[in-house]
Amino acid sequence: MYTLVCTHGKKVACNEHSIKEKEHTLHQLEEELNNLENSVKLLNANLDEQNERKVEVLNEMQELQERISKEGANTSVQRLLSLLKLLKSQERQESDIQSCHEAKHSKLKAEVVDLEEKVASGNGSESISNGFDKFLHNCLEELNAAKRELAGRLRAILLLKRQLDDVPSQTELIQYERRFSELYVHIQEKLQQTRKFYATYNALVEIKELMLKETSLLNSINSQFQDAITSTAGRLKLINSMEGIVKGAQQKLEKVQLGLQAEQKVCDALKERHAAAIAEQRRCYSLLKAFQGGGTELREVKPDSHTIQVITPVFGLLKIPSLLADVDTALGGMHKERETSEANFHVETHSLICEVVLKRH
């Protein structure tokens, strides 16, 4: 019975102890719950404050945007933002480079400490020399690789420089244009001279042939003139042939004179146009000078009838040099046609004389 009471007392004591422990843990849990509730309240308050701060910041940003848009400083602000971004990127690069340098510094420091320990112990001299040889070999390989890369980049740079040298600059293009225009003018002059020389050569060749024919004709007439003059029939035939030659020459001369008169009329008309163009050019120059003098005094000119009457001859002045060039070209063509018509007249006359005389004989 006593043992049962003792065991029951122990159980009760154990239960009381466990109850106390549970009550203590419950009390701790309640305290933790209260702490958590307080922290939740604090976090909610902080969240409300942060939301209010966010709203205030957004309002301030909107006000700043409105002020910037009103003052017209968008470009400067954009530039400032770009500069800030660039500054942040530079700071990140600086931090990355600094961290990389610190890592390399710590690594090299550890290697130095290791080497000092090996040197102090005096056992790893052979390993140190092998390490130095390996390090030197790696450095030489890196140097050769860098040299190869540098050579490749230099070749690419030289290739780009050659390509840039092949592309002409603006001054070179202007010089090329000037030289081409000068070459074109020179070629045109040479072409005109060549045509003139060819025309002269052809005319001289025809004159030479005519002179040879005339010489042969005169020689034949001289050799047969005495025989033809002794008889009456011979004299009549000679006179008739000479009259035919004269009539043919007169007909040719009349045709050439008619053509010459027509060309002379055209030439006179062109001269009149040339004189009128020169007079118009002088008048337009005087009007242009007057217009320039009035333009210096007036800053703003209204488009009234007087300005239209002054501006119209000024624009007509731009067409006068081309008109003068056309007239000069036409006059040159008329002179050339006159020379060729005269040469053709002489050629046809001499050929007619030669044909009649040859028929006579």
Automatic annotation (TrEMBL):
Q: Which InterPro entries match?
A: CCDC93, CCDC93_CC
Q: Does the keyword Amino-acid biosynthesis apply?
A: no
* Annotated CCDC93 coiled-coil domain residues: 7-292
- The organism's superkingdom is given as Eukaryota
Q: Which UniProt keywords apply?
A: Coiled coil
Mind telling me which Pfam families this protein's record contains?
A: CCDC93_CC (PF09762)
Q: Is Hydrolase given among the entry's keywords?
A: no
Any coiled-coil regions, as ranges: 12-74
Q: What name does this protein carry?
A: Coiled-coil domain-containing protein 93
Q: What organism, scientifically named, is this protein from?
A: Vitis vinifera (Grape)
